[in-house]
Predict the 3D structure of the following.
Amino acid sequence: MATPVSSLNQLVSQATGLFKQMFGDEAKIAACAPGRVNLIGEHTDYNEGYVLPMALHLVTVVVGSAASSGHLATIVTASEHADEPRRVDLRLPNEGFSQSPGMPDEGFPLSPGLPYWANYVRGVIHHYRAHPLPGFRAVVVSSVPLGAGLSSSASLEVAFYTFLQQLKPDDGHKIPKAIACQQAEHTHAGVPCGIMDQLVSVLGMEGHALLIDCRSLESIPIPLTDPGLVFLITNSNVKHSLASSQYALRRAQCENAASILGKPSLRDATMNDLEESRDHLDDVTYRRACHVIGEINRTVKAAESLKKGAYQEFGKIMVESHNSLRDLYEVSCKELDDLVTAAMEVAGVFGSRMTGGGFGGCTITLLKAQVIDRTIQHIQERYSGTPAFYVATPSEGARALKRS
Ligand code: GLA
């Protein structure tokens, strides 16, 4: 059985109920933005390559209202991991920055600080593209599992940005919006991520994955409407602490490889270029570049296979991608490898691979719809931990929600 997920309506009523309870008032605006799963194209976005993600039915919802206190923002979040809703008060950068009575000292208004979760919000306010903002109160809830590699942070950033657009509209342009949210992650969460997560959370299309060129930022919708086919997400429910330091290290190794090859980025390099320069690269740098160049090629091929309905071929490329992430890029871990091995043992499974940054989180598996129960059962029997399962439903990107 797939893990139960709150519907969008349930999340909105949870958030509006909490708003009423906290502030004694009705929330007048609401917005949501999805998490994502990447089908293939891992660690290629910050190398200006291709990615093939879809936006999910797992979403973050933000509800709230403008407040009379012109320079204050109060944000409350509820999560299943905390007994009590957590609250933070921020001073907006548009009024005098004087300390207000009873407010915790945040230091410089929107610099990163504690609590850590509020850094995403601080970052989005900081990079928002239409200041000054009015004061506001907001409540955030989410069905995207935290730290599972399904972009809970991008969905929070993009949902929050979409909420701010209802308070004080910007120009409505979608790509600069995704870039602003990516900047928030760089400057306030300290993760030098690529653009994939924020872009698909903004641009997601119901019934489609998106083939995104992370250099031009153009995207091509790839229909996923075959009822005989399922993409299944399996959450290993482990997250190794190495994840963010190793992410930054991988990014630096790629930049170093590109500069040794004399290319602006690894997107511009071919396998031939790499072989010709092999003597100038140490083994680790060579293997990192080999993964990225191979993965960019695989992603374009995989999108073609999906368009043609060549699922065997797509599945084979998924497994090649996993092996490359495990052996060359070294971002997998035993739990993810075990989940992929278990999935591949079931007849009717086309392919499986780790998805997202790695070091824990999820796998994505392509299979025939009729074998889903058997696949879930087999993985449960074979995996030593407690996995969670989600059927990946290609969904719409961020949007404002009507309040009646
Ligand atoms: C994380 C980052 C993305 C991307 C993936 C790996 O999700 O946020 O930008 O680099 O890892 O593909």
Notes: The longest strand covers residues 53-66.
